[in-house]
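note to self: dont lose this again. the chain is below, predicted strucutre after it. 228 aa total, dont forget to put it in the shared folder this time
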Amino acid sequence: MIEMKNVYKKYQNGVVAANGIDVEIKQGEFVYVVGPSGAGKSTFIKMMYREERPSSGDIIVNGVNLATLKNKRVPLLRRQLGVVFQDFKLLPKLNVYENIAFALEVIEESPKVIRKRVTDVLELVGLKHKARMFPNELSGGEQQRVAIARSIVNNPKVVIADEPTGNLDPETSWEIMNIFEEINNRGTTIVMATHNKEIVNTVRHRVIAIEGGLIMRDELGGDYGYES
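---
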């Protein structure tokens, strides 16, 4: 599903964020990406949805090589992925239903399909009763649930989450984690960058630890391994 081959990323300021990374993530896996601040985690995650481009090497996601993908094809790629951010990135002037439906409207899905899919994902994240509310009327946890619903409404094969519980309290973080578990149980590949030591150590999955742009650990059922 995701493969990186000898990937290097050097920024203009001289910082090397990826230093010859080789990794393969299979369909249906749940992978945590951990490491200290500035280790290269965000770059690793951003290269998967072409927010960042490698300086050299190949990144293949769902059969597409992102290193050679033309810029005009990037929006099409992102429609096939689900991406969840720490700061939600909801559209403030659209209500919950409209925020989620927007992801389907841009690909010109029929109103009938949009209604069904949006209703289904709202049920999954437990927000059907708040469909007509606006982002500023929701708690942080509820906004993140909307962001997750929006990310999966296209039925993506991969969901990439960058610190999805970073701004949330512990109880809400667990609620969000349970939603990701359910999505993964349905066959979707999940790649999650996180600093949440408790979640990583309690709900065991594959752990990729990055330091200095290098993969230092890659183990099934691994622990967090850092002081949080």
